[in-house]
Design goal:
Elements lengths: L2 E8 L4 H4 L13 H13 L7 E4 L3 H11 L7 E4 L16 H8 L4 H6 L8 H9 L1 H11 L11 H22 L3 E5 L1 H12 L3 H5 L8 E7 L1
Parallel strand pairs: 1-4, 2-3, 2-4
Antiparallel strand pairs: 1-5
Helix pairs in contact: 2-3, 4-7, 8-9
Amino acid sequence: MVKLKIYVFRHGQTYYNRDHIFTGWKDSKLTPKGIKQAKIIAKKLKNKKFQVAYTSDLSRCKDTLKEVLRYHLEVKEKIIDWRLRERRYGKLEGHHHSEFVKMAGTKDYKTLLHWNKIDHLEGKERKEFIKKHGEADLQIIRRSYTNKPPRGENMPMVEKRVYAFIKDMLKKMKKEKSSIAISASGNSMRPFRKYFEHLTRNQMMKLENPWDDYFEYTINS
């Protein structure tokens, strides 16, 4: 039995991340801080061994992986796979979080009822929640499993494409007896970690993925 390794990490900070702008599928570059974070990951992985590297097709992931691969001449294959992309935020992409809060603050009360977020509240607590539902809507969009932004993705959609990627990845690993590294995004890492750490849906949605560290998994082949 051969023990194969998976090393998965998040890209470094981008300019959109820094400025609190919805990024999604927009191609925001790494900040100087983001490059430093990528270098930290690279040093942490310096003594690990892997033969194949995956990255999403967005520059922030490719540039993070570039730093990692400086220490890994043994890597024979680099694969770009769009399924590792961040969750798509649709019409929100390129807009500051505060813009959405302002917009959502004028939304109809029925929006919150539809999103099933205030059914358990009563009296004063219910009124205060409704008054502040602009900020609440922002958190629902960012953390909700089933709701999706206009023309964007919900987490089941992200989960579907990431699970399809995992299936193909595992097949390749076992066939070629290869360990791999993966440069991904925060929301594509959530279902990835859910799969390998056997997490519940709620546990997955609470995950925070670090900018400057990695997660390691072992596969028996």
